[in-house]
Amino acid sequence: MNLPDNIEDLKLIVLKLLEENQQLKVRIKELEMQLNSNSHNSSKPPSTDGFKKKTILPKIKYDKKGGQKGHKGNTLKKIINPDIIEQIPLIICPDCGGDLSQIQKVVSEARQVFDLPEPKLLVTEYRNEKCTCPNCQAVKFSSFPQFVNAPVQYGNGVKTFAVLLNVVYKIPLKKIKQLFSDLYKYPINEATIISASEICFQNLETTEKNIGQHLLQSSTAHFDETGFRVNGKNNWLHAVTNSLFTYLYVHINRGKKALESTKSLIGQFTGWAIHDCWSSYFNFSNVKHAICGAHLLRELQGLIENGSLWAKEFQTFLLEIYQSKKEKPNETNSQWNIQYDTICEKANQEEPPPIITGKRGKYKRSKGRNLLNRLINHKDAVLAFSIYPEVPFTNNQAERDIRPTKLKQKVSGCFRTFHGAEIYARIEGYVSTLRKNQYNIFKELYDTFMSKNFNFEILT
Predict the structure, then answer these.
(1) Structural domain boundaries enclosing 333
(2) Domain count, the chain
(3) Phi-psi region for residue 272, left (φ > 0), alpha (ψ -120 to 50) or beta?
(4) 0.85 surpassed by pTM
(5) 62 assigned to some structural domain
(6) Would you list the DSSP string of 259-284?
């Protein structure tokens, strides 16, 4: 490269190189952040961390290992009426060999063994009757039960078990077929499992609406969404949940179109909506917004690892409020507002200003600048947990309720049809609700095949 002799031209070259150098530094920093990102400092899922798993919130330190005080155990306990009683006879004295057969004995101790019987299908044969009516001389037949509609078929117990295995326990259809063959010597047809899921889906329509109504009436609800592969294309599973109810629905979009669709609940909800900072949620003014603190802590951690001073101060600030609210849920501190603004002012000085890129003059902002803008614009939503006791610090409830979906896709792959995804979402939401309320899942799902709509009114 030939350098010009003119000093002014040299100055222009130096200025250009300095500008390019600054841009390269920003780009290198971005690439380093991507390379070092994990679930602890970004939105990446914990499954990408391998064996190095951390938690963003401080853990409670216990004095000893094992079950803690107040923990409800699941130890086996004796039942009053066992199914089988095996009397152990005492006929000969183990010491001297004396005859004890005629001696009256009493039970000294009873021990119970909980075991599985040999698996087999119970076959019930229904036989109808016919005769000639003496009055009209017509041949009449007794009617089979409504659910017996074929010469040979699987019963509702088999259908319930198959749906549980496929939807709740994420086992692929071929594996279920193999399992039935191994256990019962009857390889259930894949079409039978699909048909059973369809019947369950149709019969749960009213129950799903009932779950949705309970969520709309609650003071707090958690909202989240996750990618959902259907027929090789990306769709989205949306969740609306609380500690008692789970409502799931599938949509081809993530944002505005999905949230404004007839399946969505947020347009009718008037309580506290806990969510991440996804901008589409803020289009709804009918709800009171609260941002997930765990998401913020992860973003701040990513900035801290790249040398941000204000991020460290803000993370400490959030954790102090979190700890304070755990100890005294109903107390607030007027200084939190002032401290919040002070840190944001420091951040405004520390973060680089936006850079104009491209012919259209589009602004490019650093991750720190983008986070700062959100903290300033949504201050009330960030601090909502510090003022209102009913607002939690995190959106973990929704994240826990959509996590089974990721497991489902890792085990079984994507859904073949959109309707198949809808079937999964409705049944998974129903089972999640049953589990939260400690109902017997098999019994209630079995009743679904008997067209019994479960009403959760009694739970509130």
Answers:
(1) 293-393
(2) 1
(3) beta
(4) no
(5) no
(6) HTSTT-STTT--SEEEE-S-GGGGG-
